[in-house]
Design goal:
- The chain is α/β, with parallel strands linked by helices and about 290 residues long.
- It is built from 12 helices and 9 strands.
- It has helices at about 10-25, 35-45, 55-60, 75-80, 100-110, 155-165, 175-200, 205-210, 215-220, 230-240, 240-260, 265-285, and strands at about 1-10, 25-35, 50, 65-70, 90-95, 115-120, 120-125, 145, 170-175.
- The strands form 2 sheets. It has a 6-stranded parallel sheet with strand order 3-2-1-4-5-6.
- Helix 4 runs parallel beside helix 5 (about 100-110) and helix 7 crosses helix 11.
- It is globular, with a radius of gyration of 21 Å.
Length: about 290
């Protein structure tokens, strides 16, 4: 049981965690914190949180579990403002999409990685944001990755893992560096492709006609381009080494495809399409 949960950033991710824990009867009081007062007031109205405080230090006081659901660019400031107010038994975890930058920020603020901080990343979300977008089943049957380091207290890791399992998530562990490489390929690259495609089409002379006749496939593929621009700017900068390498690799693939199309190499195209279909059917269907 979590006696008092403090959520810094009561949006889709933080709000859904609160809703899931409430639905499971696994949390007592939930305290929210954020910059947008109307969003916090709405969170109380919806019953997502019990009360709020816009001062992060006050919000985490007395909490035995703290969840940081803020953009990566804000992580260091939040850590600096809350560190001194944490109780002796508090466990802190986060939902950041790039673990290397989070570990660097925690280390910079604390001087070393403290045993009470458990880096984590729920692999879940939608293109919507704000507490109104949150729902209790967001994490059900979704993956959560924890990336503890050598200094992390095993008991703190177990507590955070328990929290996510109560929400219905499948929890796994991996190293910080491996996490950032994997997410660059499976999450960050697809978002870059969606953002890049929509932006390129939006700057064409026939923009209105292009979007007017956009079919279901286009809408499905580009849905994630409606995601929070600030959050994704921060992710790109934080994971720039792994993401830039993945973009360069994919650029080679696109160049090869363009050349095959230009020269009418049907055999090459068929092989690519068959490999892609087989891989997706094997790993992502069912």
């Amino acid at each position: 049981m979590i006696e008092r949960l403090a959520i810094i950033g009561v949006g889709l991710i933080g709000g859904s965690l609160a809703r899931a824990l409430r639905a499971a009867g696994a949390v007592g009081e939930v305290v929210g914190c954020g910059r947008a007062l109307p969003n916090l007031e709405r969170a109380v109205e919806l019953g997502v949180i019990d009360r709020f405080d816009q001062d992060p230090a006050a919000a985490v006081a007395g909490a035995d579990m703290v969840f940081l659901a803020v953009p990566l660019g804000a992580m260091r400031d939040v850590l600096a403002s809350t560190r001194a107010s944490l109780g002796p038994d508090a466990v802190v975890t986060d939902g950041g999409s790039v673990k290397g930058s989070v570990v660097a920020d925690v280390t910079a603020v604390c001087g070393q990685m403290p045993p009470w901080f458990v880096p984590g990343h729920p692999i879940a979300g939608t293109e919507r944001s704000g507490v109104d977008a949150s729902f209790a089943d967001l994490y059900r049957n979704r993956r959560v990755i924890l990336t503890p380091v050598a200094e992390t207290d095993p008991a703190a890791v177990e507590r955070v893992e328990w929290m996510w399992r109560i929400c219905g998530a499948e929890v796994s562990r991996m190293s910080v560096a491996h996490h950032d490489e994997v997410l660059a390929a499976t999450s960050h690259l697809p978002h870059m492709l969606a953002f890049g495609l929509v932006d390129a089409l939006a700057r064409m002379d026939e923009t209105e006609e292009i979007f007017r006749y956009a079919a279901g496939g286009f809408r499905d593929f580009t849905r994630i381009a409606s995601s929070n621009p600030v959050m994704w700017r921060d992710i790109c900068i934080a994971n720039r080494e792994s993401l830039s390498a993945m973009l360069a690799r994919f650029g080679v693939e696109l160049t090869d495809l363009a050349q095959a199309i230009r020269f009418g190499d049907g055999q090459y195209l068929l092989e690519v399409f068959e490999r892609a279909k087989a891989a997706r059917d094997r790993h992502l269907e069912g």
